[in-house]
Amino acid sequence: MLHTALRHGLIGLFLITPALAAPTAEQRGKAYARANCARCHAIDRRSESPLKIAPPFRTLHQRYAIDSLEEALAEGIYTGHADMPAFELEPEQIHDLLSYLKTLE
């Protein structure tokens, strides 16, 4: 009886472990920022932006309501300078990136 209960418990643990290990929206957003934005922008709470004219992500909420960036990210962000590439994100990427940006407020 104890052996069966232990086996069922272990099976249950193995089944839920991948769900517990799945990255959160904030983690996926940070990974996206690291891969696509960190070349120019500071994406954390302390560092300076590698490109001086690129605002640190931790200050974006001072310029914009973070949720208001959703439409811009969906339609594509284009800037007036050639250094920033155009970005058009998928809905899941937008959700993840905005979730991460909110952690920096």
UniProtKB/TrEMBL annotation:
Where does the signal peptide begin and end? 1-21
Q: Which UniProt keywords apply?
A: Electron transport, Heme, Iron, Metal-binding, Signal, Transport
The record's section on InterPro entries has: Cyt_c-like_dom, Cyt_c-like_dom_sf, Cytochrome_c550/c551-like
Q: Where is the Cytochrome c domain?
A: 24-105
State the superkingdom: Bacteria
Check the record and name the Pfam families matching this protein: Cytochrom_C (PF00034)
Instruction: Extract the PROSITE patterns matched here.
Output: CYTC
PANTHER family attached to this UniProt entry: CYTOCHROME C-553-LIKE
What protein name applies here? Cytochrome c
Q: Which organism is it from?
A: Bradyrhizobium guangzhouense
